[in-house]
Amino acid sequence: MEDSRDDDDQVDHQLHERDYVDPPPAPMLDMKELKSWSFYRAILAEFVATLLFLYILVSTVIGHKSQISPSDGVGPVGIAWAIGGMIFVLVYCTAGISGGHINPAVTLGLFVARRVSLVRAVTYVVAQCLGAICGVGLAKAITRQYYNTQGGGANTVAPGHSKASGLGAEIIGTFILVYTVLSATDPKRKARDSHVPVLAPLPIGFAVFVVHLATIPITGTGINPARSLGPAVIYNNGKVWDEQWIFWVGPIIGAIAAAVYHQHILRASAFKALLSLRTYSRN
């Protein structure tokens, strides 16, 4: 009996010591969102942000490849900087409206972590994919004379690498990105590190940058199914479609793994739920 009271006192003490409050899990199906104007603003923000992201990405890649000498373009490092920098800008601009996902893999990770509802997750993914297609179409219209001859910015596994290697690179790269997103937006971090001026979009953009440095030579770097789908639809090449599954399966596995690792292992949300249930049942 005394052990039970000691456990209860320890739980209460831990709760009183906490300087942050975990938001309640997002409902699985929140149909009320469909009646909210802010919900449709968020969808529009995701569509436009993904459109702009793909326009910059494809234009940068095509611009580099169209140079006469490989040393004349921005190079892989410049491409990585452009993409990481654009993600930083877009997440900063849209975080307060839609959360700044701009990536179906990020949306999936946040859904698994119960940060967004199923309704919001599905509509975000649709908006991101449509935005990506439109963004690549815009890039093609502007860089038309080079677009079809320079690969269209599409993702494929590079010669010398197997499809298994490409899949592994996509899984690990997406894991790093989604893990960074979950960590940068964690309510515990926001509260306990409030004295440190950490801007969430900065580590997210930097994660995109470093992952691109590592995986451009392998797959051209997907880690974003919408980013891979847009060029595949507009460029419409057989090899691109044959390997498209890699850029969906890899990010899906990486996103789920990152969400489970962060939410249920590092944050121990499942353990906390069981502990709360145990304490409630005793009372």
Could you please describe the fold and organization of this structure?
The protein has 283 residues and is mainly alpha-helical. The protein has helices spanning 2-17, 37-65, 75-94, 104-112, 118-142, 144-147, 163-184, 187-192, 201-219, 225-235, 238-242, 246-266, 269-282. The longest helix is centred in the N-terminal third of the chain and has 29 residues, at 37-65. The two termini are 13 Å apart. Mean pLDDT is 86; it is low at 1-17.
Short description:
By secondary structure, this protein is mostly helical. It is 71% helix and 0% strand.
Largest sheet report? none
Instruction: Give the integer mean of the pLDDT values.
Output: 86
Please state the CA-atom Rg, rounded to the nearest Å.
21 Å
Low-confidence residue ranges: 1-17
Look at the helices and sheets and give the structural class.
mainly alpha
The tally of helices reads 13
User: What string gives the helices and strands in order?
Assistant: HHHHHHHHHHHHH
Query: What's the total count of β strands?
Result: 0
* Shape designation: globular
Tell me what portion of residues adopts beta-strand conformation.
Answer: under 5%
User: Span from first to last CA?
Assistant: 13 Å
